[in-house]
Design brief:
alpha/beta; Aspartate Aminotransferase, domain 2; Aspartate Aminotransferase, domain 1; 3 domains; aromatic-L-amino-acid decarboxylase activity; pyridoxal phosphate; PyrdxlP-dep_Trfase; lyase
Length: 463
């Protein structure tokens, strides 16, 4: 009889103990790590031992090493960098994904993973009111999701221009001009760099960071030819949404491919209350978002959605003698992402959606927005605190007067550890940026967070 179950049993039992102990500590522990990376590194064996170690003992050692350096990202009082927590079903599904160890690239080789991911994709398109015939790729995150959407756009425009991108590459190719708002996320610039498309043409935006359609029209008129327009669903600092219908109309008039970076904000399309802010978003050609942000599945899981599957698959598919490709309509998973081998990261997405149901997703998205509004209202009641943005979704940007005082208060908050809110710079000012992304954040967390800011403000009087 195989010794396989016995080989895993003790290690998995210890992992279960450490995981449940960690989760039990999250609601009450300091949000910030207690050790920095250098301190954690100092406690790790400097040289790999010669002899093997017991698997269960390795798990115990790993847990002890990591614990002081863990950030409580799952805490309802963590508001840094638009990071969500993890829903129970999604976490458990992720454990199964590791146990099943499926390479989710081919429908033929791993049919269960492919079918479950395809189901999750269908549910997502329906929830977000995007074209049902779109392809969905499960990527590592929003940066690679943006990469996929923009790569599909590059492929489509080159095909339209009669240029053999696969055979000839970019040297000598028609130039594609990319237009994006001045307050685009850096992930868009990274994706353009990876694709060899160069720097985008920055288009003026309003005080909330929304691209101005008239400015877009003027900019495109000055640089005709093949073009991609990048729009934003959820500004990094204000949470604001670009005016989709008007901006897409401008792009369509000039034959441009329209890509939407909706890392966290695209989820607003699921809500009947919030959807109007994204009116017209379904008219774009591609969209990028994160499941490990607003949907609260484990890292890593981005979503690349492309309305023109043929462009996506031409950009990413490959044909070799050893791959048993499918002729089915959904295509193979590896045709939709820049990976031939990957874990079945769409399975936790399926589990999260199945746990929540349509109404649960809507409720969670709307509750995140309501919590952001409650935080903004509570902070506005503290003397010396200024909320700088219109709180339209899940982002709150705050100033405490001078840049120096804002920095000091931000540092004091992080040092105390009762909450985690990250610093940033927006429109020439230092700010405290709050991103409400965790499904578990409740009224008590909001109240405790406001009080933490109040304590920091009182300890840093104005000059």
């Amino acid at each position: 009889m195989s010794a396989l179950p016995e080989a895993y049993g003790a290690a998995l039992e210890r992992a279960m103990v450490h995981a449940t102990n960690w989760l039990a500590s999250v609601p009450t522990r300091s949000v910030r790590p207690q050790s920095d990376a250098d301190q954690v590194a100092a406690s790790i064996l400097p040289r790999l031992p010669d002899e093997p170690a017991d698997a269960a003992a390795v798990v115990d050692e790993l847990a002890a090493l990591a614990e002081p350096g863990l950030m409580a990202i799952q805490s309802g009082r963590f508001y840094g960098w638009v990071m969500g927590g993890t829903l129970p079903a999604a976490m458990a599904a992720d454990w199964l994904v590791s146990a099943w160890d499926q390479n989710a690239g081919l429908r033929f080789a791993t049919p269960a993973a492919a079918a479950i991911e395809e189901s999750a994709a269908d549910w997502l398109l329906d929830l977000l009111h995007l074209p049902a015939t779109s392809d969905v790729g499960f990527t590592t995150g929003a940066t690679t999701a943006n990469f996929v959407g923009l790569a599909a756009g590059r492929q489509h425009l080159m095909d339209e221009a009669g240029w053999d991108l696969e055979g000839l590459g970019l040297s000598g190719a028609p130039r594609i001009t990319v237009f994006a708002g001045r307050e685009r996320h850096a992930a868009v610039d990274l994706a353009l760099r990876y694709l060899g498309l160069g720097t985008c043409v920055p288009v003026d935006a309003d005080r909330e960071g929304r691209i101005l359609p008239d400015a877009l029209d003027d900019a495109m008129g000055e640089q005709p030819g093949p073009a991609i327009v990048c729009l934003q669903a959820g500004n990094l600092h204000s949470g604001a949404f670009d005016p989709m219908a008007d901006s897409i109309g401008v792009a369509r008039d000039r034959g441009a491919w329209v890509h939407v970076d909706g890392a966290f904000g695209l989820w607003a399309a699921a809500s009947p209350k919030l959807r109007e802010r994204l009116a017209g978003v379904e008219l774009a050609d591609s969209w990028a978002t994160d499941a490990h942000k607003t949907l609260n599945v484990p890292y890593d899981c981005g979503l690349a959605i492309v309305a023109r599957p043929e462009a996506m698959r031409r950009a990413f598919s490959v044909h070799t003698s050893y791959l048993i490709a499918t002729d089915a309509g959904p295509g193979d998973p590896f045709e939709k992402v820049p990976e031939m081998s990957r874990r079945a990261r769409g399975i936790p997405v399926w589990a999260a959606l199945r746990q929540l149901g349509r109404n649960g997703v809507i409720d969670m998205v709307e509750r995140l927005a309501e919590n952001a509004r409650a935080l903004a209202d509570g902070l506005s009641s503290i003397p010396g605190v200024e909320v700088l943005n219109d709180v339209v979704f899940t982002q709150v940007s705050v100033s405490f007067g001078s840049d120096e005082r804002t920095r000091r208060i931000t540092q004091r908050l992080m040092a105390e550890g009762a909450v985690w809110m990250s610093g940033s710079s927006w429109q020439g000012r230092n700010i405290l940026r709050i991103s409400v992304s965790n499904w578990s954040t409740d009224d008590a967390d909001v109240a405790a967070s406001v009080e933490a800011v109040r304590r920091a403000v009182e300890q840093e009087p104005e000059a």
